[in-house]
């Protein structure tokens, strides 16, 4: 973090205000780094802005004012400072400028910092001490846990501690995670095997996993073939090789449930509910999908959707994409959104390796990652009229009814 020299001019009052803001920002940045440190380093030294010879000769009054304000700030915040002599022109003698300011300790830094930063720091240090006292985990593991739970509420942090103590004393291997009888816990609290809560518990206990009996992954599909009208949806949880639909000629994989339910009848056709990255299970659970001659994947027009498309192809499913290219993005731009379902703004990202994408899909993916050339980072599948999908499927040769 560097000084913003442009803010260090003006009246004495303006210089005082701006120096105070910048010094506070320096201290807060250092506290944010130190809050995860097992062994802290104090004092923290801020180097004061130093003018070049010509800068000082041309504008010595500004730097003299800055030095005056820095001295006052250091003295009022119980900080030490050092000074350096500078020549003030050939015939004007010497003057002193503040060289650096040293914040002596944590307590002083917390008084300087804003309330939010100080609170964040105190919470982290309290949690760090708590875990080091209660568990035999390595310091490295404890720091990883603190970082994983950085955004967790105090309640959630305490629940992780309680759960870790429970699993240290009880063998829950082979149980469903929802069946573990931890007093006072919701059955869903532990989450899936990739949840940050489970990872934190494992780190505290020095384990790779909690050895639960996990709920099997499933794929949902339904018949689109008119001859099977009225058949219920199918849920597949293990490889299904002898399906009567294995000989069908058409399959549409969709990402979202509304579109899955609205898909019209297609002779010798199926609709498979991809449900986000669960689509990666399709090739393993429906091994005959690789033999269906006409398969289409239709997901959201966003970076996640295109990554899933790439993964589906990489799993061995040769499929066309539906409305997942630059032309489609332009055509349906009016349906775009800049926000997640939680109301948070969608973020840009670095492109991942997506070897399964074709040229026009890759161009859209890169635009959606960078934000260049697009006004929105997401166009959700449900927003595109199903009649448009029917038209495109017929262009692909799908025998859509009606």
TrEMBL record:
It comes from the Bacteria. Residues 30-192 form the DUF3322 domain. Residues 213-392 form the Wadjet protein JetD C-terminal domain. Transmembrane segments: none annotated. It holds the Pfam family DUF3322. This is Wadjet protein JetD C-terminal domain-containing protein.
